[in-house]
């Protein structure tokens, strides 16, 4: 198991005779695939032997992968062929690549239904594998059931998760303090973000917003009425 961006070293050891000649190749199969459908790993760029010039004399043909990516995950095995001897194949090593989730972020959403007091969303992204836990923790009151965990896979192969929290109008507390906690297999300790909001101020803001919208509607109606009246009056003068 390695984390994306780290280096991985996969062992391949064999016995040899002095002055012997031979060669080594590395092969890769999918983690849940068939070993017979493996492909040769080109030894260039991020893939190299630990001892490219002395692997025969040292009996060590270990493979080093630098700056590991999610696409590098798979089963790797080496094949060693010594002069005048049959080719030998290693048992294979599973390389599992993890990616840490980003620090969770909490967003305030606009309430979409009249019975909602507040709607929050917690989001984390960039992690692998897809299994993840996102939990809401609240300071006071009857905790409402959070929404389902929504997971998307990005074009890069990693994942993003979002979980909503909707507080109904029956929820009663003045100062709301919540935490969003993220747990993933790649983390040594959970990640969390805190959020606080004064619900009384939020309700006042909602009321003021509705009041301003009503004033705007009245002004629009008056403007249209005056415009129609002036148009009719202008036409009457022309006649």
Extract low-pLDDT stretches.
204-209
Distance between the termini: 89 Å
The portion of residues assigned to helices is 10-25%
- How many β-strand stretches? 17
**How many whole angstroms does the radius of gyration measure?**
32 Å
Instruction: Please tell me the overall pLDDT.
Output: 82
Overall outline: elongated
Q: How big a fraction of the residues is strand?
A: 35-45%
Give the SSE string. Answer: EEEEEHEEEEEEEEEEEEH
Main pleated-sheet profile: 5 strands, antiparallel
Structural class: alpha+beta
Count of helical regions: 2
Give a brief description:
This protein has 239 residues and is an alpha+beta fold.
What are the defining features of this structure?
alpha+beta, 17 strands
Account of the 3D structure:
With about 240 residues, the protein is an alpha+beta fold. Helix content is about 20%, strand content about 40%. The protein contains two helices and 17 strands. The strands form five sheets. Strands 3, 4, 7, 8 and 9 form a five-stranded antiparallel β-sheet that branches. A hairpin with a 5-residue loop joins strand 14 and strand 15. The longest helix has about 40 residues. About 5% of the residues have low confidence.
């Amino acid at each position: 198991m390695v984390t994306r961006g780290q280096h991985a070293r996969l062992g391949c050891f064999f016995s040899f005779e002095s002055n012997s000649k031979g060669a080594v190749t590395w092969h890769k199969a999918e983690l849940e695939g068939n070993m017979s459908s493996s492909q040769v790993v080109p030894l260039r760029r991020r893939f190299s032997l630990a001892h490219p010039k002395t692997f025969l004399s040292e009996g060590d043909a270990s493979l080093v992968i630098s700056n590991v990516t999610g696409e590098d995950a798979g089963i790797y095995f080496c094949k060693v062929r010594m002069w005048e001897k049959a080719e030998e194949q290693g048992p294979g090593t599973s390389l599992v690549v993890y990616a840490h989730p980003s620090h969770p972020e909490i967003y305030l959403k606009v309430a979409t239904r009249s019975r909602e007091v507040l709607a929050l969303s917690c989001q984390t992204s960039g992690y692998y594998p897809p299994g993840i836990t996102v939990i809401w923790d609240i300071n006071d009151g009857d905790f409402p059931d959070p929404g389902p965990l929504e997971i998307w896979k990005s074009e890069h192969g990693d994942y993003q998760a979002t979980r909503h929290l909707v507080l109904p109008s029956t929820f009663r507390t003045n100062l709301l303090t919540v935490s969003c906690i993220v747990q993933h297999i790649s983390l040594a300790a959970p990640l969390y973000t805190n959020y606080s909001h004064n619900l009384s101020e939020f309700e006042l803001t909602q009321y003021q917003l509705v009041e301003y919208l009503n004033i705007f509607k009245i002004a629009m109606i008056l403007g249209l009425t005056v415009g129609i009246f002036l148009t009719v009056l202008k036409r009457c003068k022309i006649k």
